[in-house]
Amino acid sequence: MNVHEWVEAYGRAWREKDGDAVVALFTEDAEYRSSPFREPSLGSEGIRAYWARATSTQENADVRMGTPIAAGDKVAVEWWAIMRDEGEEITLPGCLLLRFAPDGRCAALREYWNVEPGRHEPHSGWGV
Predict the structure, then answer these.
(1) Do 104 and 26 meet the contact criterion of CB atoms below 8 Å apart?
(2) What are the tens digits of pLDDT across the range 16-48?
(3) Which of 29, 55, 84, 97 is most deeply buried (CB count within 10 A of its CB)?
(4) From 3.10.450.50, 3.50.30.10, 3.40.50.410, 3.50.40.10, which CATH number describes the 3-117 domain?
């Protein structure tokens, strides 16, 4: 799996709330840091548990993934999500910083994101 395929699979897993699909994208001992202020989710079971919690209140997630920028085993990619979360429409743009293992799975993920009430489309030039 190349970086572009990985990014598309991640977006698809999010849209489909598919914990098995997202866990398959990571090494068994991966670190998933969803916020700089939270402890990381560790390993397959930690990622599965985080994913179940994070997506449990989301409905109709329109997740768009930008074009990844790669340098060696590191990748940065923007994402833009519009959804209902806990019954309210929100826009959630963010960025993933990824480190890949030699087998093409992600060994470490850090994400940074913002949330804004309502529906907001990406700005011109987003994700390129």
Answers:
(1) no
(2) 999 999 999 999 999 999 999 999 999 999 999
(3) 55
(4) 3.10.450.50
